[in-house]
Write a structure and sequence with these properties.
- This protein has about 250 residues and is of the alpha+beta class.
- The chain has three domains: about 60 residues; about 50 residues; about 110 residues, Ferric Hydroxamate Uptake Protein, Chain A, domain 1 (Beta Complex), CATH 2.170.130.30.
- About 50% of the residues lie in helices and about 20% in strands.
- It has five helices and seven strands; from the N terminus they run ααβααβαβββββ.
- The strands form two sheets. Strands 2-1-7-6 form a four-stranded mixed β-sheet. It has a three-stranded antiparallel β-sheet with strand order 3-4-5.
- A hairpin with a 4-residue loop joins β3 and β4.
- It is rod-shaped and about 190 Å long.
């Protein structure tokens, strides 16, 4: 009986071992099948991704719209620079014209304001010019030293009291003058060092005009009025000062 029990126990043990081995084999097969399934799915996913990437990298058969956009964009700066090149000279010319207009307008405005103030205060405004151009034409070197272009004073604004004379205007011109007085009035003999007879052989002297008219009176005898244009000219020969009878 004891042997029979031992044999029976061995048989049961062997049977259980076979059952365990069978169960392990089935589990391994299921695990392998799962791995194969996951591997195949992963492969399909990779293939799909590669296919999508491949399709997206293919060139557009109708032409690249991106290239067209880039080309259009690159032409933009060229057009802008051309417009700038065209518009800059015009704008700078317009600016220069505006500056010139502004300068001229400012000068005229300042002159008008000065005249208005002088008139309102009872003053008289006149304009003084002095030239020795005829001495330059006669090659008198001393004249070139004082006035290289022959113009010693040009349209200088002078404000005087009512009743002032041409001589009063000349004295306020800022030039050095020499004059003599006699029973007829004051006679101007030199302006800025250029005296009568400077052309040699006793030739030359100063004459003056008021508004283009040459009075035959001393400078102290002619009363000036608002806006008068007073000019002193150096004369050497008759007719060298336009409009002068001297």
């Amino acid at each position: 009986k004891t042997k029979a029990k031992i044999i029976l126990a061995l048989i049961l043990t062997f049977s259980m071992s076979l059952m365990l081995l069978s169960a392990c084999a089935v589990g391994d097969e299921n695990q392998a099948a799962g791995l194969e399934s996951r591997t195949s799915r992963t492969g399909e996913t990779v293939q799909d991704s590669e296919t999508k990437l491949s399709e997206s990298s293919k060139p557009d058969p109708t032409g690249s719209s991106n290239k067209t956009d880039v080309t259009k964009t690159s032409t933009g700066p060229t057009e802008i620079s051309q417009e700038n090149r065209t518009s800059e000279p015009a704008s700078s010319s317009a600016s220069r014209a505006d500056i010139s207009k502004t300068t001229a307008g400012t000068t005229e405005s300042a002159t008008a304001q000065t005249t208005a103030v002088a008139t309102a205060s009872g003053k008289v405004t006149v304009y003084l010019s002095v030239n020795c151009a005829n001495l330059l034409k006669a090659n008198v070197s001393s004249a070139a030293d004082y006035a290289p272009d022959g113009v010693m004073l040009s349209h200088k604004e002078i404000v005087l009291d009512p009743g002032s004379t041409v001589f009063d205007a000349l004295k306020q011109g800022g030039l050095v003058i020499s004059a003599s007085n006699n029973f007829l009035g004051i006679y101007v003999s030199a302006i800025q060092g250029i005296s009568e007879g400077a052309a040699g052989a006793g030739k030359g002297g100063w004459v003056y005009s008021v508004n283009g008219v040459f009075p035959n009176y001393p400078v102290s005898s002619v009363t000036v009025e608002q806006g008068d244009e007073i000019s002193f000219h150096y004369t050497i020969t008759p007719g060298d000062v336009p409009g002068s009878p001297f």
